Predict the structure.
Amino acid sequence: MATLPAYSQKYKTEADTIKLNEEFTSVSNDIAALKSELTTAQNNLSDYQSKANSALEEAKSSAEISSEKASKASDGSVKDARRAKKQAKKAYKRAKDSETANKDVVREQKKITKLSKKLNKKEKRLLQLQEMRISISG
């Protein structure tokens, strides 16, 4: 018993071969472009992850220093208080940088997921076109 494909065959006759070949070429080009874009995104992701880790370490370190300066300021002079305030601002900025870096990582992960799904769809369509090509020539 022969199994029927889950899609309706768009190209059925030899006259449809030109259109089939055009779509086949278009889909193949789309796949190549998506693969390139996906590779770039995956490379960017590792960069973003290392930047996020670095920013997190800087934020932690800055927060610890800020805490130390704040404890000195509570027992010290106005000068110590100003230093503590300045360090607190630096710690806050580094925490924001860390947050931004983490958002970049998440954004890039979503982009990779989206590109992977698109690539998968295009590859499935290419297989369908190959099957149509075989059935026309067969």
Observations:
- The two ends are 18 Å apart (CA to CA).
- Confidence is low (pLDDT under 50) at residues 1-5.
- The chain is about 85% helix and 0% strand.
- Helices lie at 17-75, 78-137.
